[in-house]
Amino acid sequence: MSNSVTARRSRSRFPLGGWESSLLVLFVLQVLASSFSIPGFFDSFSSWLGLTENFLPFGIVALGLSVVILTGGIDLSVGSTAGLGAIVMAELWLHLGMPIWIAVMIGVALGALVGLINGLIITRFNTEPLIATLATSFIYRSVGTALAGESPPSGFPDSFNALGQGAIGGLIPYQLILFSILAVLFALLMSRSAYGRKIVMVGYNGDAARYSGLRVGRIVTSAYVISGAMAALAGIVLAAYYSAVRPDMGDILLLTTITTVVLGGISIFGGEGSIGGVVIAVLLLGFLRQGMLIAGFSDMVTTMVTGAILLAAITIRNLLSGRGTGMALLVRRFRNLGRDKLTEATK
Amino acid sequence: MALPDPVLPTPMQVGFYEARDLNKRFGPVTVLRGVSLAMQPGHIHTIMGENGAGKSTAFKILAGLIQPSSGSLHLDGQALSLASPAAAHHAGIYLVPQEPALMPELTVTETMFVGQLPTMWKFPRRVDWKAARARACQALATLDLDIDPDQLARHLSIAQQQQLECAKALLRGCRVILFDEPTSPLTTHEVERLFGTMRRLRGDGYTLGFISHRMDEVLDISDDISVLRDGVLVDSVERAAFDRVRLLSKMVGREMRVIPRRQISHATSQPVLEVADLAHAPRFRNVSFDLHKGEILGFAGLVGAGRTEIAETIFGIRARDKGIVRLAGEDISDLDTHDIIRKGLVYAPEDRARHGAVLPMSITENVTSGLLERVRSRAGLLSRSDEDRIGAETVQRYRVRCAGTDQKLRQLSGGNQQKVVFGKWMGIGPDVAILDEPTRGVDVGAKDEIYDLIDSLAQEGMGILIISSELEELVRICDRILSIYDGEIVAELTGDEITPERVSASYLTTAAASGR
After folding, report:
1. Which of A149, A304, B205, B469 has its CA 20 to 30 A from that of B431?
2. What is the pLDDT of residues B257-266, one digit of tens each?
3. Is-annotated flag, keyword Transmembrane (chain A) (predicted)?
4. Is A1 in contact with B407 (Cβ distance < 8 A)?
């Protein structure tokens, strides 16, 4: 084989892989089907776009959580962090009379801070992310509930509520604009920046990353900081949407965002996946739930469907990637056999 | 209630275990060539040899862990076919691994009976713990072992785990017990205890196999010694004919092996890496050496002598107790790996899949991962064209055979993966490169290419430190060789002193002299 021929890229640069493309097709089909079969799903373009306000906060959390899952970790505290961020924001505004947008910034910063705490606990004490963030989620939620008191703050100024409910020219919701900007930012960060490359490398093989001179601890910690900040931001957007703080959103937020990230094609083992997939999954899952709610299904049914989708997504991905199935076990056994032979031979 | 017979199976005066004409190939590599061994009941039969001589492979075949390519096994004259360790246990053959993999949360009793706990009642069947414990106690007492049967396995020391494995062998009624290099992780006292157990078993008529590098202990305990070299049985002697010098020369090989050494050295007198009194208990101590510009320095020694640990400490992966590392005169001992790389020292680890490379990532991504600053970036985004250029240059310069620079590394052969790892590090122009087992898993043809590559890097003035367990490799390319034994530099060889025999003897004789 000649090297002048081989020294080129062999594949196209189409930004979406097979999984993402399938999701996109599924999304289009689902929207078309819902539009025709569910009355009220597509009354007008603006009302259809308005549906996104119901689920885009979940998307914002999913973007941040994707970074953590790409490192091979998990952040179970996103729900609590969202609540805590929103409550702190509201309390600062209500009781200290702080300008609301300053309070928003402090709320997001607080999310970053609790993310930093998660990250430090995980990297410094070598704790399992699952356990560490489960524990901190209880703590953050308790602190949030305590701060909120018996009657959580509500009645924010209209300028703030517009963040959750308003739309430019009555057509494009501010939420959608915010999410789009964040989505593009995250997609570029993960796929094109040095930082994203490091995240992926740590996710695929943390040891190799360390031997390549990456400061793995810092990189992992930064992922939790991002996840915390995004969660707090999402909590604040939710507060604007309801014009009230809801400290009880944690669990459904967590379940939905993990589902979204996994459905979006990010491997829970780390490394694999793209932000593009997550964005499509946000829309697919969001419109699906909205469609079902409009069609009259109860919240319980939609939650059940969410669970089923999570299961299906993870099963299909495992089948495709050859991980965690009987087939995969066979494949791996053969691979190991080959590797053992290699090490044997060189001993 | 039918209690199983709590009496231990008594060793019969049989157990004549024979291997006839064993051959074993792994792909293109032949590890054993026509090896025949005869192990007698009531004897301790030791196999000696250097790294890669085929000792462990031979034992693994004898214990059913791997299958020979050809040849046969005979127990008391009857041909055996051992498809698995379980089959070997059934036939009465047990291998005690160097570091037994016990289930840490089980008790000693449970560990001993894994998979075959005595039961009582037909239905519902239940474990007869009383009987299990009684039999465990008896097996432990037979070997005079001071191990509490109710203890958790994770509290056992390695020595105790090995002894527990012996007890397991007895419980399974095995007559042939093989010890794969049991003494290297043990202290002197523990070795004595293990030998006590082995002598007791020998006295009871068991057939024992033993692997060791340490001449003194081998002479002490063995009844028969077989010497393997490069997969060939070169000597087999009985106790009366033991002779230290003869065994050593057999292990090392007396006939001259002709190895084309590098003709031209690029070594200068200018030190680029200075290591002084580096130590990290208990792996290594008193490590001091200089590496010069353009020099190829080799670390020779047995597997587990601490060579990789020394390299990883220099590279900032492991902590150190004391010592100073200077790179081009600058103290780098307190820097982390990230900074050490940027000062100009790189390390290619021996285990590519785990440490050296990210196999699911592309060639280009692996190449640039060592120093992402190499890639031009605009507004924080890496330039794709610049990264592709670096990937393509690396593929061309290091002759990586691939379908394209965005091919995943796991799809390449071992040799090509290694070239990518080289390209990753050499592309950033380091002053010093440490290469740990640079040709492991690399086929013969690609080895030559890698040797040429190393030579050309030295010619450019890089200081290169090579850790290798392949003597011929060291002899072939090194300007100077340091022998490491048990965490210390024990010999330095230069120029004409560098022959496979002398390099090998430099650490093996130390092994024999210190003995432990």
Report:
1. B469
2. 556 777 788 8
3. yes
4. no
